[in-house]
UniProtKB/TrEMBL annotation, chain A:
Residues 376-604 form the Cullin family profile domain. Keywords: Isopeptide bond, Ubl conjugation. PANTHER family: CULLIN (PTHR11932). It comes from the Eukaryota. It comes from Ambrosia artemisiifolia (Common ragweed). Coiled coil: none annotated. It holds the Pfam family Cullin. One of its GO terms (molecular function) is ubiquitin protein ligase binding. This is Cullin family profile domain-containing protein. The keyword Ubl conjugation applies. GO terms for biological process: ubiquitin-dependent protein catabolic process. Belongs to the cullin family.
C-alpha cells in the first residue's frame, strides 16, 4: 500500500507551454497561393503546381478556421473565370458556338476536377459542417449561372440544338458526338436544367414537326405507306435518344410521335378509302397489318379500334355469307366458305396480330354471332361432315382428316343449337352407315370422340350405339347364313341391319309390300332372330334399305342396279307386267305416295339412269302416268347407281318437322333443368330461374325464355313448384 | 249443402295454410300441411259433387255469395281491406268451377317417379264466364281480356293462371302501365299484353279507359237482377 502511494506522486504531467504564433497575414498569403494555383489551372498551366503543397495549404486554412475565406475566395475566382469563358462563347459565331461551348465546358470540368482534389479537405469538413454546396456541385452551379443562363447563350444554345435536330430529321448529317456532349452537359447540370432548357422545347418542337408532317403524309400517302413512314420516324426517334439524348426522354418523345402520327389520325387511318384496315384484311397484307398492330398497340384505344373494325367487318361479311341465298343452295360450299373465312382471319391474327387473345375472342364472338343467324347452320355443318366423310377424305392422309375434323369442331363450338346439330348428325350418320361401303370408320370414330370430349358422354352415347348395332348386325347375318345358308338356294340374299329403337333416327313408317321372293326370306330371318333374342320385336324399315338387282334389258344389255328398297319393290313388279300405272304401283307396293313419286322420278326422269319409261314424258310424276321398262336403256357402266340415299339439304316441310321434333325434345330438358335448379335452391325468384336455366342448357342449346316460362307453368300445374304466397315472383320447390 | 256452407268450409281449410304461406321458405312440416290442405279440399270437392248434380247452377250462385260477402263494387267506396277477402273468394270460384277433378298419373321425364295429382284446370268458356262475373269493375281490361282469351286460348286455364290474372288485374293500368315484362307473368298474360300493344297504339289508352267504365256499369247492371 505504501509503496504504491509513493510511486503515484512521482508522475506529474505538465502542459505543453509553447505558444503557436500565427502569422496575422497567414490567411491572405495562403489564399493568394491557392488563388494563383486556380488561375494557373484555368490557364491550363497546372503542370508546375505541387498538388501536395496546395492540398496542405488548403488543409491548413480550413484547420485554422479560414474555411469561409477559402470558400468565398473560390466562388469569386471561379466566377470570374467563368465570366471570361462565357464571353468567349458568346463571341463565337455560327457553327463555332457549340464547339466553343463544348471545349470550354471540357476545360471547366477538368479544372473543376483538379480544384476539387486540392480542396478535398474543405469539401469534407468545412462544407459539410456549414452546409455549403460541395465544390463539384458549386462548379456546376456557377457554370449554369454564369454561362448557360447568360442571355446571349441560353436561347441561342436552345435554338441551335433544336435546329440541328430538325436538320437531322430532314435527312442531313450532324455531329452527333458534339450533340451528345452538349446534351450530356445539360443533364449533368441537373434534371431541371435538362428539362427546361432542352427537353421541354424539344418535345414541343417535335410535336409541331410531326403534326405538320403527319398532316402532309396523310393527304398524299395510302394507309400502308403512312404507317411505314410513321414506323420509320418512331425508330429514328428511338435511335436519337440512344445516340445523344437522356434515356429518360425516350418515352416522352415516342409518346409525341405516337400521338401526332397515330393517335390523332387513328380513325382516318383505319377507315382510309381503298387502303385502310379493311382493305388490308381483304388483301391479306400481313406486313401492313402487323405494322398496324404494332403501331396502334402503342396508343391508347389503338388496339380496341382495330379490333372493333375487324370484328364489325367480319360480322358484316359473315352476315352476307350466311344470308346469301346463292350460298345456301350448296351446304358444303357454304360451310367451306365459313371455314375459309375462319382460316383467313386466323392467319391474320397469327401472323399480324401477335396471336392476341382479345382478337381471337372478338373473332370467335363474331363467328358465333353470324353462324347462328342462319338457323340452318347446324344442318349444313352436319352435311359438310357427311360430304367429307363420304368422299372428300378418300386418299387424304390421316393427319389432314384430323385437320378438317378439327375445323368442323371449331364451327360446331360456335353453334348455339348443338342439339339440332346432333339431330342432323344422327340422321346423316345413319344414312352413311346404312348405305354401307365407303364409310371411313376411323374418321367417323375420331369425330365422335371429339364430340364426346366437347359435349360429354350423353351427347354421343346414341351415336356410338349405332356403330355397335352395325357390328352386331354383321354377326347376326353371318350366323343366319351359317344356319340357313344351305337351304336358301340361289335366291336373293338378304343383309339385315338390326337397329336399336331409340339409337337411330327411325321414323314410324308403314312397311311397304316386299316382293314375294323376299317375304319368305324375311320371315325366315325374323324367326331366326327372334329365336336367338326372345322378347324382342322386329319391324322392317323398308324406307331405309338398299338393294342390288340384276337387270336384263331388251337390247341384251345387262346391268347391276343399285337402288333403294322402294325402287327395288317397284322394279320387281315389272318382272310380271309390261306396263303399270301409277295407281297400280301404289296399290301393289303400298309405298307412301311422296316416296313413291320420288323413287319413280329418279328411275324415269334422270338421264342415264332412266331404267323406266314414263308416259307422258315430263319432269313430274302424275297420278295417271303409265310406266314400263325402258328397253333402250344403256349405260357405259355395268353397275348403275340410282337415287342413292345421299344426305341432302332438307326441304321446307322436313325442316319444319325436324324443328318441331327438336322443340319437343327440348321441353323435358328444360323441365329437368328447372327441377334441378329448384331442388338445389328450394326458393328462387323468376328471373334467376330463367338465367340459371339458360346457363345450364347453354352447352346444348339456347333456351327461349318464354318456353322456360311455359315449362315453369306446367311444373306449377303439376305441383312441382308453387308460387310464394306473398311474392308472386318467387317460386318454391315442392318436394 | 249450399254455396255459403261450401265457402265456409273452404275458408276453414285454406286459412290454416294461408297463415303459413307468408314467409318465403316453407319447412317440411308445412309442406305436409299444404298436402293435407289439398287432401281436405279434394275431399270437400267430392262432397260438393255428390250433393250437387249440376255444376252450372253453382256459377249462378256466385253473385249471391258475392253480395252476401259484400264484395260487389260500389261507387261510393272502394275498400282496400277487402283485397284479402276477395282473393280468397276469387280462388274459391276457381275451386268450385274447375273441371271434374280427374286423377291422372303422369311421368315427369327427369325423375322417372310417378306422381299423382289433380288436373286442376278450367275450361276456357267457363273461365271467361266466371271472370266476367267476379272481376267486373275490378279489372279495367276485363272485356279485352275475355275476348282475347276466347280467341287465342285453346287449353284449359290452370289454377296458377287463374290466380295470376287477379294479380295482373290489380297491378296493371288500362294503358298497360305497371306491366313488367320480366314480372313472371303466365305466358297467357304476356301474350295478352303483346296483343294489346299490337292492336292499339299507346294513344288509344284514353279510349280504353272510357270503354272500360262503360262496361263496368253494364256489368253491374246485369248482375243486379240476380240479387
Amino acid at each position: 500500500m505504501n509503496c504504491s502511494n509513493q510511486k503515484k506522486r512521482s508522475f506529474n504531467i505538465e502542459a505543453f507551454k509553447h505558444k503557436v504564433v500565427v502569422d496575422p497575414n497567414y490567411a491572405d498569403k495562403t489564399w493568394r497561393l491557392l488563388e494563383h494555383a486556380i488561375d494557373e489551372i484555368y490557364n491550363k498551366n497546372a503542370s508546375g503546381l505541387s498538388f501536395e503543397e496546395l492540398y496542405r495549404n488548403a488543409y491548413n486554412m480550413v484547420l485554422h478556421k479560414y474555411g469561409e475565406k477559402l470558400y468565398t475566395g473560390l466562388v469569386s475566382t471561379m466566377t470570374s473565370h467563368l465570366v471570361t469563358m462565357s464571353r468567349c462563347i458568346e463571341n463565337a459565331h455560327g457553327e463555332m458556338f457549340l464547339e466553343e461551348l463544348n471545349s470550354k465546358w471540357a476545360d471547366h470540368n477538368k479544372a473543376l476536377q483538379m480544384i476539387r482534389d486540392i480542396l478535398m479537405y474543405m469539401d469534407r469538413s468545412y462544407v459539410h459542417g456549414s452546409q455549403k454546396t460541395p465544390v463539384h456541385e458549386l462548379g456546376l452551379n456557377l457554370w449554369r449561372d454564369n454561362v448557360i443562363y447568360v442571355t446571349g447563350i441560353q436561347s441561342r444554345l436552345q435554338n441551335i440544338v433544336l435546329q440541328l435536330i430538325h436538320k437531322e430529321r430532314t435527312g442531313q448529317i450532324i455531329n452527333q458526338g458534339l450533340m451528345r456532349n452538349i446534351i450530356k452537359m445539360l443533364s449533368d447540370l441537373g434534371p431541371s436544367v435538362y428539362q427546361v432548357n432542352f427537353e421541354r422545347p424539344f418535345l414541343e418542337a417535335s410535336g409541331d414537326f410531326y403534326s405538320i408532317e403527319s398532316r402532309e403524309f396523310i393527304e398524299c400517302c395510302d394507309c400502308g405507306d403512312y404507317l411505314q413512314k410513321a414506323e420509320r420516324r418512331l425508330n429514328e426517334e428511338i435511335d436519337r435518344v440512344s445516340h445523344y439524348l437522356d434515356a429518360k426522354s425516350e418515352v416522352k418523345i415516342t409518346n409525341v410521335v405516337e400521338k401526332e402520327m397515330i393517335a390523332n389520325h387513328m380513325t382516318r387511318l383505319v377507315h382510309m378509302e381503298d387502303s385502310g384496315l379493311v382493305n388490308m384484311i381483304i388483301d391479306d397484307k400481313y406486313e401492313d397489318l402487323k405494322r398496324f398492330y404494332n403501331l396502334f398497340h402503342r396508343v391508347p384505344n389503338g388496339l380496341s379500334t382495330i379490333r372493333e373494325v375487324m370484328m364489325s367487318y367480319s360480322r358484316e361479311t359473315g352476315m352476307q355469307l350466311v344470308t346469301d341465298p346463292e350460298k345456301l343452295k350448296d351446304p358444303v360450299e357454304f360451310v367451306q366458305c365459313l371455314l375459309n373465312k375462319k382460316d383467313k382471319y386466323d392467319k391474320i391474327i397469327t401472323l399480324a396480330f401477335n396471336n392476341d387473345k382479345s382478337f381471337q375472342n372478338a373473332l370467335n364472338s363474331s363467328f358465333e354471332f353470324f353462324i347462328n343467324r342462319n338457323p340452318r347452320s347446324p344442318e349444313f355443318i352436319s352435311l359438310f361432315v357427311d360430304d367429307k366423310l363420304r368422299k372428300g377424305l378418300k386418299g387424304v392422309g390421316e393427319d389432314d382428316v384430323e385437320v378438317v375434323l378439327d375445323k368442323v369442331m371449331m364451327m360446331f363450338r360456335f353453334l348455339h343449337e348443338k342439339d339440332v346439330f346432333e339431330k342432323y348428325y344422327k340422321q346423316h350418320l345413319a344414312k352413311r352407315l346404312l348405305s354401307g361401303k365407303d364409310v371411313s370408320d376411323d374418321a367417323e370414330r375420331s369425330l365422335i370422340l371429339k364430340l364426346k370430349t366437347e359435349c360429354g358422354y350423353q351427347f354421343t352415347s346414341k351415336l356410338e350405339g349405332m356403330f355397335t348395332d352395325m357390328k352386331t348386325s354383321q354377326d347376326t347375318n353371318d350366323g343366319f347364313y351359317l344356319k340357313h345358308g344351305a337351304d336358301l338356294g340361289d335366291g336373293p340374299s338378304l343383309v339385315v341391319q338390326v337397329l336399336t329403337t331409340g339409337s337411330w333416327p327411325t321414323q314410324p313408317s308403314a312397311t311397304c309390300n316386299l316382293p314375294a321372293e323376299l317375304t319368305s326370306l324375311c320371315d325366315k330371318f325374323r324367326s331366326y332372330y327372334l329365336g336367338t333374342h326372345s322378347g324382342r320385336r322386329l319391324s322392317w324399315q323398308t324406307n331405309m334399305g338398299t338393294a342390288d338387282i340384276k337387270a336384263n334389258f331388251g337390247t341384251g344389255q345387262k346391268h347391276e342396279l343399285t337402288v333403294s328398297t322402294y325402287q327395288m319393290c317397284v322394279l320387281m313388279l315389272f318382272n310380271n307386267a309390261e306396263r303399270l300405272t301409277y295407281k297400280e304401283l301404289e296399290q301393289a307396293t303400298e309405298i307412301p305416295s311422296l316416296d313413291l313419286k320420288r323413287c319413280l322420278q329418279s328411275m324415269a326422269c334422270v338421264k342415264g339412269k332412266n331404267v323406266l319409261k314414263k308416259e307422258p314424258m315430263s319432269k313430274d310424276i302424275g297420278e295417271d302416268d303409265v310406266f314400263s321398262v325402258n328397253d333402250k336403256f344403256s349405260s357405259k357402266f355395268f353397275k348403275v347407281r340410282i337415287g342413292t340415299v345421299v344426305a341432302q339439304k332438307e326441304t321446307e316441310p322436313e325442316k319444319h318437322e325436324t324443328r318441331q321434333r327438336v322443340e319437343e325434345d327440348r321441353k323435358p330438358q328444360i323441365e329437368a333443368a328447372i327441377v334441378r335448379i329448384m331442388k338445389a335452391r328450394r326458393v328462387l325468384d323468376h328471373n334467376n330461374v330463367i338465367t340459371e336455366v339458360i346457363k345450364q342448357l347453354q352447352p346444348r342449346f339456347l333456351a327461349n325464355p318464354s318456353e322456360i316460362k311455359k315449362r315453369i307453368e306446367s311444373l306449377i300445374e303439376r305441383d312441382f313448384l308453387e308460387r310464394d304466397g306473398s311474392d308472386r315472383k318467387l317460386y318454391q320447390y315442392l318436394a | 249443402m249450399d254455396i255459403f256452407q261450401i265457402y265456409g268450409r273452404y275458408c276453414e281449410v285454406t286459412s290454416e295454410t294461408l297463415d303459413y304461406g307468408g314467409d318465403g321458405y316453407r319447412p317440411v312440416s308445412e309442406s305436409k300441411k299444404a298436402a293435407l290442405c289439398r287432401d281436405a279440399l279434394s275431399h270437400l270437392l267430392q262432397l260438393v259433387e255428390s250433393r250437387l248434380d249440376k255444376r252450372v247452377p253453382i256459377l249462378e250462385d256466385v253473385p249471391m255469395l258475392m253480395s252476401r260477402l259484400d264484395l260487389m263494387v260500389r261507387y261510393d267506396r272502394l275498400r282496400v281491406a277487402d283485397s284479402f277477402e276477395f282473393s280468397r273468394f276469387y280462388n274459391f270460384v276457381f275451386f268450385i268451377c274447375r273441371e271434374n277433378g280427374q286423377r291422372s298419373i303422369k311421368l315427369l321425364e327427369p325423375y322417372k317417379h310417378t306422381y299423382l295429382f289433380f288436373n286442376c284446370s278450367l275450361a276456357v268458356s267457363r273461365a271467361i264466364m266466371a271472370w266476367k262475373l267476379v272481376l267486373s269493375g275490378r279489372f279495367r281490361l276485363l272485356n279485352q281480356w275475355c275476348s282475347f282469351v276466347e280467341k287465342n286460348q285453346r287449353h284449359n286455364i290452370s289454377e296458377d293462371t287463374w290466380r295470376q290474372v287477379l294479380a295482373f288485374s290489380r297491378c296493371v293500368h288500362e294503358n298497360l302501365e305497371g306491366y313488367d315484362p320480366e314480372g313472371a307473368w303466365p305466358v297467357l298474360v304476356d301474350e295478352f299484353v303483346e296483343h294489346m300493344y299490337r292492336v292499339n297504339g299507346s294513344e288509344d289508352a284514353r279510349n280504353f279507359c272510357c270503354s272500360c267504365s262503360d262496361s263496368e256499369i253494364q256489368a253491374i247492371d246485369e248482375s243486379l237482377p240476380g240479387l
